Amino acid sequence: MKTIKEISKEIGLEENDIEPYGNYMGKISLKVIKKLEGKKDGKLVLVTAINPTSSGEGKTTTTIGLSQGLRSLGKSVMITLREPSLGPNFGVKGGGTGGGKCQVLPSDEINLNFTGDFPAISAAHNLLSAIVNNHIFHGNELNLDVRKLNWRRTIDMNDRSLRQIVVGMGEAGGAIAEDSFLITPASEIMAIMGFADSYSSLKEMLSRITVGYTKDGKRVTAGDLKAQGAMASLLKNAIKPNLVQTNEGVPALVHIGPFGNIAHGHNSITADRIALKLADYVITEAGFGSDLGAQKFIDIVSRRAGYRPSLSVIVITVKALKHHGGMKKGQDGLDFLVKGMENLYYHIENMRRYSIPVVLALNKFSDDKEEEIEYIRKELQKRGYELALNEGYLKGGVGSIELAKLVLKTLQSTEPSQINYTYEPGDPVKTKIEKIARNVYGAKEVEFSKKAMAVLKQIKMENLDFMDVCIAKTQYSITDDQTKLGWPKDFVLKIQDIMLSTGVGFAVPLSGEIMTMPGLPKHPISEEVDIDEEGNITGLL
Questions:
Q1: Using the 8-state DSSP alphabet, how is residue 443 labeled?
Q2: Cβ contact 377:54 at 8 Å
Q3: Partners of residue 214 on adjacent β-strands
Q4: What are the residue ranges of helices labelled H in 82-214?
Q5: What is the reported pLDDT for 164?
Q6: Exposure of 496 by Cβ count < 10 A (0-12 exposed, 13-18 middle, 19+ buried)?
Q7: What is residue 179's predicted lDDT score, i.e. its pLDDT?
Q8: d(C-alpha 131, C-alpha 518), whole Å
Q9: Residue 476: partners with Cβ closer than 8 Å, 6 or more residues away
Q10: 398: helix, coil or strand?
Q11: Are the CB atoms for 257 and 183 separated by under 8 Å?
């Protein structure tokens, strides 16, 4: 690896722009944003995917591989990625830094404690929980209703036992209340960190967080408790993007990590903005398939931030296509692939609906059959699309040159057009939900529970219809039912509840059986993780 000083110098940063964390990691000062204001933006390429299997289909590997392929062709390129969460790292998925010859380094540091961003976010979140309970203990001056507290606790670990707990509030008479934990990537503070680009904007958003309601129904915020200053102080360094590198020395900004199926699934707009000023091409990734990560990136992230993707790369694998064709363990055959192609066609149409050019990348595995790859290629050609093989995992940048060339060719041959957003900012929240359900997922209707309808009524009363909608649903299906594979049509999307994240400005409808605190599988990856006497960590990837 190059030292962090070498990497920062390569992209035009000065010594006082970077705060080193050891030899190979560093944080970029927020002052850099103002320094780069006059520079022209590079082109932004969004990497998304079809609906994945539980092991993922290689979006991060493809993002890194594409950047290394572009670098091999002599292009100025950077990548922006989310930080991995310890929950998935030790659960089903494993590390979130790519794999093989397409990794961001130092991978062990990034996958585990990195520069302390996640612990800082957890601490700020739990500080607010402590302040709320302390306020109640000392007389409850704001008249908070302990039955209507909606600020939970957080931990960056999959722990199903924390989904529901009972706490003593310390009120006179020993009041008891139900409470729960959510995983840190689902914390509203994690989402806020994605949009805060200064300490003043950070404090403003933190102050708007809803912690509960008074006994007469009035909203109580973190600002009412004077908590925002202390919370922002804990986040002093976490707000700064982290600079690292790929296997082949491509500069990478890895910053914050909201989940794609619960939150908005993207790194910070600060990281994107800095990268776009420093490189001609920026490759970024949105969580899960285009129905989740790409939809939220386009309708929420890029719209708020004021930049737009010039092109989207849809990552596919033979394994995932067969899975969407109904293939079970121990089965195989071309019939599964033929049927599973429907899921890919959905994601192509979804990105076309936004008026964003599409490139298709097959993340190639060693056991993929040539006849299967050729079938996919021919079927896509019939629809006017080229397929690029990505072999970056085994070959690094050289294995991603075919994809890099197709990306450059597509960028040169298409003119940017107006993005066709899913909803208008002035639409009521209910309308926004229905437009996403019908126009993005293809649902025939939306069914709201009594609980969800009560929240919609509350939104109207409190004039909160300005909020963006960030639907929480399964990543494994276009619908809210993970067993419905391929391209389901004319289904009903069921909204069980709606969380109001007033700090970041999200209405978060909960659909299906989505959980904000995952659990570990029977045999988690943590069983394989170990460290030797030299400090080398194994089993995480």
A1: -
A2: no
A3: 144
A4: 86-90, 107-111, 117-137, 188-193, 199-207
A5: 80
A6: middle
A7: 80
A8: 26
A9: 51, 52, 53, 54, 482, 485
A10: helix
A11: no
Output the six-digit token pair for 218. Answer: 């009035």
Q: Which of 283, 277, 254, 198 minimizes the C-alpha distance to 13?
A: 277
Please tell me the chain's helix, strand, coil percentages from 3-state DSSP, rounded to the nearest 5: 40, 20, 45
pLDDT in tens, 420-451: 999 999 999 999 999 999 999 999 999 999 99
- Nearest CA among 44, 40, 10 for reference residue 283: 44
Domain positions in the chain are 4-116+238-413, 118-234, 429-511
- Percent of the chain past pLDDT 90, that is, above it, reads 81
Which amino acid makes up residue 79? I
DSSP assignment of 182-237 equals EEGGGSHHHHHHTT--SHHHHHHHHHT-EEEEBTTS-EEETTTTT-HHHHHHHTTT
d(CA 415, CA 298): 18
* DSSP 8-state class, residue 144: B
What is the third-level CATH fold of 4-116+238-413?
Answer: Rossmann fold (3.40.50)
Number of helical H runs and strand E runs in the chain: 19, 24
> Model's pTM, two decimal places?
0.94
Spatial separation of the C-alpha atoms in residues 168 and 188, rounded to whole Å? 24
- Name the residue type at position 217: G
Q: Where does residue 439 rank: exposed (0-12), middle (13-18), buried (19+ CB within 10 A)?
A: middle
| Topology of the domain covering 118-234 | Domain 2, N(10)-formyltetrahydrofolate synthetase (3.30.1510)
Give residue-wise pLDDT tens across range 315-329: 999 999 999 999 998
| Phi then psi dihedrals of residue 322, to 5 deg | -65, -40
pLDDT of residue 173: 44
Q: Bridge partners of 167? A: 177
* Rounded CA separation 394/196 (Å): 37
- DSSP letter at 439? I
CATH architecture of structural domain 429-511? Roll (3.10)
Task: Identify the three-state secondary structure at position 444.
Answer: coil
| pLDDT for res 534 | 85
Q: Report d(CA 493, CA 182) in Å as an integer.
A: 24
